[in-house]
Amino acid sequence: xxxxxxxxxxxxxxxxxxxxxxxxxxxxxxxxxxxxxxxxxxxxxxxxxxxxxxxxxxxxxxxxxxxxxxxxxxxxxxxxxxxxxxxxxxxxxxxxxxxxxxxxxxxxxxxxxxxxxxxxxxxxxxxxxxxxxxxxxxxxxxxxxxxxxxxxxxxxxxxxxxxxxxxxxxxxxxxxxxxxxxxxxxxxxxxxxxxxxxxxxxxxxxxxxxxxxxxxxxxxxxxxxxxxxxxxxxxxxxxxxxxxxxxxxxxxxxxxxxxxxxxxxxxxxxxxxxxxxxxxxxxxxxxx
Length: 288
Prior knowledge:
Strand order of the largest sheet: 5-4-3-6-7
Order of helices and strands: EHHHEHHHEHHEHHEEEHH
Helix content: 40-55%
């Protein structure tokens, strides 16, 4: 495992730190960096001249070419123009973009992108797929130990990238059960909460989305032991995870999935129907 990847806090240089434990990410960055260096050398441009042409420091150029820093999209755009690569460098942006997201988020997003049905029960906050960037940022800002500003923005961007799920065609069936208490918690300021409620109403009215709230005066239910997520795929297989079952590990075998499905089904049955849930969100919006 590479251990010489530089870990830098907030800087004025355009780029992100790379996770030193992310083997796939390190391999991608090494390939991208090597291609950038070979292209620069092929056109006879020194690193110092290239750095001046793209408007970044020479040190940043060496870090990117050495696979020790994740270049931002605009860096690759400028490099493509300066090196007259005809789009070859720009074509690497998709893989580079994936590297900047934590590998756990990439793995989750990969599963979600293949699922035809997703069910989520969330206990203490609004589910990540439903969050606005402002809400996600306010939520992550309270984490301890605190994230660096750079890592915070990286995680917000990673969470927002998963929202492409709503643009898929054909659209997957999405079900969410949220605790009313989580919506009443004052995460962020007034405008952050208003925007989040408006986002919930927008998504909750989509034909492929079922959004329910568990009222604060509900009876005890199986979700009180923790979050539940269930994903089902086209071939009939599935994967699920719950904080309160199987040590929190993802499970795929039918017996364990049925247990999670039973719990999730009971939670949905005890939650408010979708229409009443949206009405309650509208009420909370009016009170904010």
